């Protein structure tokens, strides 16, 4: 596609309509949250003798604690299901606290990954072909264990608990447990969950290979392997695979980042164009990734500056909300340096991405984005 100003404007007319449609479909999550809030309002009777502030603070603290416990229970369920199926632990994370297995020893690290409260990553069983590898208990273990504990808590609250306050606390946990089980299992627009992964694999067994393949890739990345060191076979998506499936998105990203690592921007352009051809069928998270990468590639090409500014204007709000994503920082850096020739405005981006080197499980991703920021300085700013 020729990236003229007119074409970029036409592109965004289409994408804005697609986003409006997705927002309509995505209201289910808001409805579920409102229902849960209504149930909590019934469970927690307001005491007129206490201040509204203290009442509100108690509920907020309870919600935070319930969220923390559910994250621990959910990821423990994945761990139990994986161990039963013969999987081997790579890392176990609850919010920032991460237990990483290195050379048969566990190390505690502080790591974070946007969009996840926890994560239990495991390697597939040894000696079993991917096509015949068990997966059900590993994927669904989190939901099963969460519901098991939720049921126990419910019976404890109804029949065993004597204290009214403790009963309210336990029932709040139950409401959260049911809500999270629904969110994790039923298909929701723009959200990738355990349930959507399970249904996708059952629908198309080729996706099981991609699912297990990305676990192996993640382990090798944690061990220090860089993007350009992966062979085509290691990051290959099965022939005729549906690239719009979220399970395939990691492999797509690794392939794309390999192109960026070796500075093959022609191949990166071809790959991004391929993803854009399926844009309307991608998850919102993948669409945002495509939008950010498109802006970066427009910036380093000889493109009408009006088109670049139009593209930036349409994703500026989302980029500002996602400054903890390395590719967003790199693209914002490139925009400010190339379009506005700014030096001071990019300092926060540099500081933030350097901090990420100490908190991310995949340091190669951060290093790649730092390299691409330096490449902008050497190849574009210095040559201007």
From TrEMBL:
The chain crosses the membrane at residues 28-46, 52-73, 80-100, 135-161, 168-188. It comes from the Bacteria. Keywords: Membrane, Transmembrane, Transmembrane helix. This is Peptidase M50 domain-containing protein. The lineage of its organism: Bacteria, Bacillati, Bacillota, Clostridia, Lachnospirales.
């Amino acid at each position: 596609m020729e990236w003229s100003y007119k074409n970029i404007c036409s592109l965004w007319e289409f994408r804005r309509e697609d986003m409006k449609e997705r927002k309509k479909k995505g209201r289910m999550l808001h409805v579920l949250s409102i229902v849960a809030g209504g149930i909590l309002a019934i469970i927690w009777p307001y005491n007129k003798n206490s201040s509204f502030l203290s009442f509100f603070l108690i509920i907020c603290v309870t919600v935070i604690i319930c969220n923390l416990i559910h994250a621990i229970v959910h990821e423990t369920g994945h761990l139990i299901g994986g161990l039963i199926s013969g999987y081997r632990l790579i890392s176990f994370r609850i919010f920032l606290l991460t237990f990483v297995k290195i050379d048969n020893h566990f190390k505690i690290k502080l790591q974070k990954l946007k969009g996840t409260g926890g994560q239990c990553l495991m390697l597939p069983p040894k000696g079993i072909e991917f096509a015949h590898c068990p997966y059900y208990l590993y994927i669904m273990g989190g939901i099963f264990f969460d519901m098991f504990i939720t049921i126990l808590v419910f019976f404890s609250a109804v029949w065993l608990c004597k204290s009214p306050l403790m009963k309210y606390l336990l029932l709040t946990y139950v409401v959260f447990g049911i809500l999270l089980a629904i969110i994790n299992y039923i298909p929701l627009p723009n959200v990738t969950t355990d349930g959507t992964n399970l249904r996708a694999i059952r629908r198309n067994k080729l996706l099981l290979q991609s699912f297990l393949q990305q676990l192996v890739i993640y382990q090798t990345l944690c061990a220090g392997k860089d993007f350009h060191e992966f062979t085509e076979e290691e990051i290959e998506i099965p022939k005729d695979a549906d690239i719009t499936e979220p399970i395939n998105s990691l492999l797509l990203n690794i392939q794309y980042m390999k192109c960026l690592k070796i500075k093959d921007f022609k191949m990166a352009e071809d790959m991004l164009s391929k993803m854009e051809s399926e844009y309307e069928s991608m998850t919102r998270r993948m669409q945002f990734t495509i939008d950010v990468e498109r802006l970066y590639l427009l910036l380093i090409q000889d493109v009408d500056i009006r088109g670049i500014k139009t593209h930036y204007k349409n994703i500026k709000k989302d980029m500002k909300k996602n400054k903890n994503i390395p590719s967003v920082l790199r693209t914002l850096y490139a925009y400010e340096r190339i379009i506005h020739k700014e030096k001071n405005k990019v300092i926060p981006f540099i500081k933030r991405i350097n901090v990420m080197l100490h908190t991310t499980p995949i340091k190669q991703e951060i290093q790649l984005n730092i390299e691409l920021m330096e490449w902008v300085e050497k190849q574009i700013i210095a040559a201007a």
